[in-house]
Amino acid sequence: MILIRCLLTGDEDMANQKSEELIELIGLQRFYVESITNIMSETGKKWYDGEIGIAEEHMITNVMRKIIEINNHKIEVKGLIEGVAVICNPEGDDHTMSNLVLEGLLKIRKYKVVNIGGNWYMGEKTKATNTAIIDFTIESRPDIVFISVTIARYLFNAKLIAKELSKALPDTEVFLGGQGTQGIIAGELQEGIHLANKDTLNTLNHL
Length: 207
Description:
- The chain is of the alpha/beta class.
- It is 54% helix and 12% strand.
- It contains eight helices and five strands; from the N terminus they run ααααβαβαβαββα.
- The protein has helices at 2-8, 12-26, 28-48, 54-74, 96-108, 126-140, 155-168, 200-205; strands spanning 83-88, 111-115, 144-148, 173-177, 193-195.
- Strands 2-1-3-4-5 form a five-stranded parallel β-sheet, sandwiched between helices.
- Helix 1 packs antiparallel against helix 2 (12-26), helix 3 (28-48) runs antiparallel to helix 4 (54-74) and helix 4 (54-74) runs parallel beside helix 5 (96-108).
């Protein structure tokens, strides 16, 4: 793929151009779900195999993040919105790119999106972090909450956040998703908390 070659050489302008051409050809949704997934998987494999270093991996990730942000800003939500969605992640689990992709996919579906995902860290005060996430989300009165978990060791904390949100917002659908949720078994989550399908579109199409 020409886009990957542009990313590997650090040609940000050409990467933007090739992204635009690809989006014109297959649409933004497929670009987000298929192309970005393939690009990041191939980048991870090249790093694992020693073909590129961690600096190159970060460069590619940062350029792709910018491309996603640019395209998210282009999405126009016209007319009545479907609802309000909040995207977040537990402390320590920085899942920024996936959160941005999810933000775009929700905007395409006419949701107003509040994305508070990122590198939450408040020292040893995990409870303070949870409180900040929970309080902000409750104030936003969302119809849907997505809690993204990349690393399994942060799943316990994500469940605590989900439990408090489900209790405070009984009419809100709370979803847990991401690679860190793979160990969850059916029926493990309490009522009102849903496990997002590994096929992101399948989850979104059933909202």
